[in-house]
Amino acid sequence: MIIRENYMGKIGFSEKYIRSLVGRILCECIGVSGLLPARLRIGRWFLGTGGNAAHSDRAVTAKVIDGKLIIGVHIAVVYGSRVSAVSESIVGKIKRAVEERTGVPVQKVTVYVDGMTD
To answer: pTM for the complete prediction?
Structure first.
């Protein structure tokens, strides 16, 4: 739980909320074809981005260290897209959106590209 305090009182953000927020942001990113579970390494399990942000708890990891967020995302990209450009776009969008909506500073965003799709 992340607790922020302002002039109106205290606000708490759960890690589940942060993961779902990041999942919704990923669904809007160009070049991302799906979210992949962080712990599954065998088989071909795939979550498409079309409305499946509710399953982002498996594809997004969020940790709080010293009051700052460290976020990891596991994705599949569209074949033919520049992985570096997609990753940079994701990092920028996640940092900006999370800091804007929660007020919690994001220390690091790590993008793991675990697959490519047509």
So the answer is: 0.81
